[in-house]
Write a structure and sequence with these properties.
The protein has 259 residues and is of the alpha+beta class. It has helices spanning 21-31, 42-59, 78-82, 84-98, 116-120, 165-178, 186-191, 242-258, and strands at 34-36, 64-66, 107-115, 133-140, 152-155, 195-197, 204-208, 213-216, 224-232.
């Protein structure tokens, strides 16, 4: 890849450039996932793991989902979030898939921590993202002997991105709620060629979030699994109906936390 712009310190992130867009998009189209290797350095991963350990010490072994604007401030990820090369790359991917500029340049970061029995309830919950491009950054992946790592499983590009927000909401409700148990069945995964992606901390895994039905496999309740998701380009961001979809998703997470 070409050299990274000079905005990042030399000891920060490996090169990410807009010139990678074509190869990434082709890989995402053909196999479901495009990978940029060794992008996030060990120093940043260590800082994120320290935050996770503190959360568990303070609140116990359970599921954590951090999606507000404040959580990323002290993680070391801010330079990547602001990197002009990454934004150019995401913009090109969005334009290539949608044929228009994204409604916003904002990257939405979400950290997910799965541990304990509550963490199991957040596994194998297949869903579509609301964003055209999704990036998965593995931070902490279980790797002990006979320890299930909680790999990413997806049905790559199972649908097109829905330009109608109403169609999108109905389809998501059907696939993620009424049919949610079907996607976990081994014979369905074999018949529909579900892809299992082994995750390496520090890599960035790109996929079409609105098109690929995906979930994480279960890991042991005694393990800790942490990933950061970077979402870009919500084609329905300006729709008044989008607020309804967000509230329904929030209610779903609250129910899972109570069960």
């Amino acid at each position: 890849m070409n050299a990274l712009n000079n905005e990042l310190p030399l000891d920060a992130f490996a090169p990410v450039t807009a010139g990678s867009a074509q190869a990434l998009a082709q890989s995402m189209d053909e196999s479901g996932v495009g990978v940029l290797q060794a992008i996030v350095p060990d120093s940043v991963l260590a800082k994120l793991r320290g935050i996770v350990a503190k959360l568990i010490d303070q609140n116990g072994t359970r599921y954590f989902g951090c999606s507000d604007a404040e959580w990323i401030a002290n993680t070391g990820l801010r330079p990547l979030m602001k990197d002009a090369g990454l934004h150019a790359l995401l913009r090109q991917l969005y334009v290539q898939k949608m044929g228009t500029l994204p409604p916003s340049e904002q990257i939405m970061p979400v950290m997910r921590v799965l541990t304990g029995t509550q963490g199991l309830r957040h596994s194998n919950n297949f869903h579509y993202d609301s964003y055209v491009v999704s990036i998965l950054l593995p931070v902490l992946i279980p790797n002990g002997p006979d320890e299930p790592p909680g790999n990413l499983t997806m049905y790559p590009n199972l649908r097109d991105t829905r330009r109608s927000v109403i169609v999108n909401i109905i389809e998501k409700a059907l696939m993620e709620t009424l049919l949610k148990g079907i996607w976990r069945l081994p014979w369905v995964q074999k018949r529909l060629a579900a892809k299992v992606v082994t995750l390496t901390p520090g890599n960035l895994y790109f996929f079409w979030g609105t098109r690929s039905l995906h979930a994480n496999q279960a890991s042991s309740p005694s393990s800790v699994r942490c990933t950061v998701l970077l979402h870009f380009g919500d084609p329905h961001a300006n729709s008044v109906l989008k607020g309804i979809s967000r509230r329904l998703h929030s209610m779903k997470l609250q129910r899972m936390a109570r069960d």
